[in-house]
Amino acid sequence: MNKLPLIIKREYLAKVRNKSFVIMTFLSPILMVAMVVLVAYLAKVNDNESRVIGILNESNFFSNDFVPSATTAFVDFRDVTLQEAKDSVASLGFDGLLYIPKDSTVRAVTKRSFFYTKDAPPTQVVERLENTFQERLRQEGLHQLGISAADFAKMDTHFQMNTETFSGETNLKGINEIKAFIGGGFGYLIMMFIIIYGGFVMRSVIEEKTSRIIEVIISSVKPFQLMLGKIIGTSLAGLTQFAIWIVSASILLLISFAVFDIDPSAMNAGASIAPNMGPSLPTVDQTMQLYAQELFKIPWAMLITFFLIYFILGYLIYSSIYAAIGAAVDNETDTQQFIFPIILPLMLAIYVGFFSVFSNPHGPIAVGFSLFPLTSPIVMLMRLPGGIGEGGVPVWELVTSIVLLIVTFIGIVWLAAKIYRVGILMYGKKPTYKELFKWLKY
Amino acid sequence: MNNILVTKEVTKQFGEYTALDKISLEIPENSIYGLLGPNGAGKTTLIRIINQITYPDSGEVLFNGKPLKAEHIAQIGYLPEERGLYKSMKVGEQALYLAQLKGLSKPEAKKRLKFWFERLEIGDWWNKKIQELSKGMAQKIQFIVTVLHEPKLLIFDEPFSGFDPINANIIKEEILRLKDNGTSIIFSTHRMESVEELCEYIALIHRSEKILDGKLSDIKKAYKNNIFNVGLQTNNADILLRELTDKFTISASKFDAKENQLDFTLQLPTDDSGELLTYLASKANINHFVETIPSTSEIFIQTVQSKGKGLDE
After folding, report:
1. Contact A442 B100 (CB under 8 A)
2. I want to staple B205 with a disulfide (CB 3.0 to 4.6 A). Which of A31, A101, A157, B41 is the partner?
């Protein structure tokens, strides 16, 4: 009789019934949603904060340049000294005083202008004032050169290189980054899953070792079966947790946005606080459409298929290493020296992915790391949204990468199983790499 | 007699270290077999090989005359020295799981567990977690799990360590009952006196080698030196002792004047003690007359010394 399903079931139930696991599963989405809602809410509150700024303008310039906005009002002071203006700003509770002295030229005036505040001023406010000054200086410069503002506006110097692949497809600037981001999301998911649930596998092995049930069990089943059952059972528990997270988080998010009346798209507004001051692109909508088209063109079915392949293989490789580590040690504190070398390739994959694959998805570094089996699950997924074949990842690279991954998978699982088999029955031995190497020969 | 288990020159090495050196054993069916030796002698390694947890580098193990295979696992029950249970799992669930791993179906396992739980009077533990039980209680459950699938061969590694005397006795009784029902049993222990009375056969393992094996009564017979402990009731001990010393090898004599009792140890050239007994009876009242039989540990020490090997412990 095959005992693997029995082991998987027990490992799954043991994990799912664990109190801290249950709490984590149901608390995390609430915490996550609470955080998102809080951030969105704070952004909303922050946006609505109104400011009053006093202006003492002694010069002949800047009479109409400060236009009040929804959040900022300007109050002009006249016929007072700077000290008097400062005092009244303070007593009236204004947010600041802009002092523009008298001088002959705009340039000289701007040089000696000051913005006084109680504490360090908010960046947006200073930026806004700076922009006004810059615009005025530019106009002054144009005026001196004898160019009218209207003529200048006609001179649109904004330029974008038209790019196309050899096969005639239009390339969009930044689309590579967007694609890599989508792949990077998948890769990141794999990394998180490996670190969290690999750790679970490891602790579960240590628990069996310290509770001394291990020898009872492996007198009934092969250590390899136990290891495999443990890995599969734990990852099924992990997938359950992920599913619960995704479903409950989306429901909670929808509910809370409805309750708090937050427009989710408003959250992006924060990112675009300082829009390009230059002439706006007339083709924004068109470009957006192109991007949308390009995103639809991403072969999602293919991407998800390969995500599953890389996910399963990558996870099995790493979690069997975790299982071997758990078997080699007597308690969790001894695991540190072994954990770091595992996390290293994962981190490397993420960093290489974000720095190198984004800018050049088919460069030598991207190719190298997407072939190397310990990083390929993450890096290859970052490259794949660009498609397979022409213009995308060459088929041979994909095949090589998966074959290498499978070979490594078999090799690593074999090695890990050997260490596991010896390690689970070893007590009181401080494991070193040398010791582990010896175990391979037992 | 049929042998349930035979090992032929089983050798196991861990790197440079030889854990088992050509161990050959024959374990007769329906017997209690003692695997004796100090800690680190290699007993546990041998047992792990029998349980197919590890594999020998060379040599062969036969179960019921056939080479040991994975399918034999269901016919062996093993209570390891390092034993424990899942701490946060319920007793009943855990026992069911372990029984199913041994190949029992769920309903069958449930039925048998119920029987055993009632037998050992622990029926109300079913829904308790192991961490709520004492060590002795957990040991009872481990015992049940070991024997539940009614194996032909039971292996107990240090079975009585951790049991209080009352529970140890209950378990001893159960083991004897299993033996009466036809099960073969291997006891492995370094505390030789703890199983001496139970074993019919023993093997002594020392430093990875078998130094002696066979039927315990035969071994004892071979190792006894015809030494007798004698206690006599007499009024003239001095004269009697002098007479005896002339005829026999006498040692460790002692006279209790208050009770008029003379105690001494006497060695005969053969094990024919009839003549001696008649002689003694004619001289005095015999309080006791006992042949000294060496204990297993004495035999062990003697064997080790005679083989010219020092004993570490």
Report:
1. no
2. B41
Query: Cα dist. A1→A279, B144, B152 in Å?
Result: 74, 22, 19
Distance CA B55, CA B40 (A): 18
Which helix (H) or strand (E) segment holds residue A420: the answer is: helix A395-423
Beta partners for residue B36, in sequence order: B189, B204
Chain A residues with beta carbon closer than 8 angstroms to that of B102: 220
Task: Indicate the pLDDT class of residue B78, thresholds 50, 70 and 90.
Answer: very high
Q: How far is CA B156 from the centre of its chain?
A: 9
E strand spans, chain B: 3-14, 17-28, 32-36, 58-63, 66-67, 76-79, 153-157, 184-189, 201-206, 209-215, 227-233, 249-256, 261-267, 285-291
* Residue range B3-221, CATH number: 3.40.50.300
Q: Which domains does chain A have, with CATH numbers?
A: 51-152 (3.40.190.10), 173-259+297-439 (no CATH)
| A216/B87 touch (CB, cutoff 8 Å), yes or no | no
Q: Which chain A positions have a beta carbon within 8 Å of B14's beta carbon?
A: 442
Residues of A in contact with B78 (CB under 8 A): 215-216, 219
Cβ atoms of A386 and A393 within 8 Å: the answer is yes
Burial state string for B104-130 with b = 16 or more CB within 10 A and e = fewer than 16: beeeebeebbeebbeebebeebeeebb
At B171, phi and psi to the nearest 5? -65, -40
ipTM value of the model? 0.80
Going by pLDDT thresholds of 50, 70 and 90, the confidence category of residue B4 is: very high
